[in-house]
Amino acid sequence: MTTLNTKFRLNTGAEIPAVGFGTWQDKDAQEGAVTEALKAGYTHIDTARIYGTEPAVGAAIKKSGIPRSKIFITTKLWNNAHHPDDVEPALDASLADLGTDYVDLYLMHWPVAFGRGDSMFPKDKDGKIINGDTDYVDTWKAMEKTFKKGKAKAIGISNFSRKEVERLLKETEVPPAANQIEVHPYLQQNEACEWFQNKGIHVQQYSPFGNQNEIYSKGQNMGKLIDDPTLVEIGKKYNKNGAQVALAWGITHGRSVLPKSKTPFRIKDNLEGDFKLDAEDLEKLKSVDKGLRFNDPSVNFGFNFYIGEDGKVQ
Questions:
Q1: CA torsion 30→306→86→146, rounded to 10°?
Q2: Which end of the chain, N or C, is less surrounded by CB atoms within 10 Å?
Q3: What is the three-class DSSP state of 11?
Q4: Nearest one of 17, 23, 24 to 3, comparing CA atoms
């Protein structure tokens, strides 16, 4: 298998492997999938409290026999635990499920608070999400404490716009190490990605295959990104497929990518997306950008995400 095992340096000095294994969805299949991923050579596993996959990730890592220090684990704080008093207990619960005493990266999953309590999606009598009144800046300050205690070796954010990050940088002490956002060749977000990177914030691409995920209704009545003729054509030059080109596009731009699969051959295939594209191919790929954002739960979550960013439908 040919893979570069590329790593990027976070602003903490730690290294993050360029290809991470995503564990969103298919909760019951994840222990097997993560086991396959570790066997294939992945050293970066991405999970979240809301995914319900932390126990499966922890079990697979334990069974693998790979030393904890050799695996980069990311998990995420869910919206119902944004109150400063809830942040550390939420991380402790994640650590218990993962079977570890620290995570390499702890992200605030969304810049919105839900009502406090055990319910992941607290709703009123009309079925609408009950929002909490905690400002994400106060949540971040509580996350900083977990960083200083060493329970999170790095802290970051997910689904944050530049405007929201600007507030964090002005009003808090520890700058985010990473921002995990939707980026793929159909939503390239060049300006935003460059802005984050210039601030020393590493960009992680979730949904690097765009509309490959059936959950995105917006992407169903069009061709799949990984079958796009431009990606397929570029792939021939490197003896790679369209999916691998999509991953290499992100990595060549200095970003980590988080593909997910439960199929053993695809799990291996995705790891082989760690290669560099030539400048002329990066140039060709600019033409496929459609500014198409597939994930925007603003209406359901009662918060207007991605203001001023590409692909935001006003």
A1: 80
A2: C
A3: coil
A4: 17
Inter-residue contact 109 to 47 (CB < 8 Å):
no
What mean pLDDT value characterizes the chain? 94
- Mean pLDDT value of segment 1-23: 91
pLDDT of residue 222: 74
**Distance of alpha carbon 276 from alpha carbon 270, whole angstroms:** 14
* Backbone φ, ψ for residue 168 (5° rounding): -60, -45
Catalytic site includes residue 186: no
Distance between CA atoms of residues 294 and 63, nearest Å: 35
Least confident of 209-213, 258-262, 280-284, 296-300: 209-213
The token pair at 98 is 């993962």
- φ, ψ for residue 292, nearest 5 deg: -100, 110
Say if residues 300 and 129 touch (Cβ distance below 8 Å): yes
pTM: 0.95
DSSP assignment of 227-265: G-HHHHHHHHHHT--HHHHHHHHHHHTT-EE----SSHH
User: Is 112 in contact with 137 (CB distance < 8 Å)?
Assistant: no
Distance CA 177, CA 11 (A): 6
- The H or E element spanning position 137 is helix 136-149
How many H helices and E strands in the chain?
11, 10
Catalytic residue among 51, 186, 206, 306: 51
The two three-digit tokens of residue 199, written as one number: 């601030």
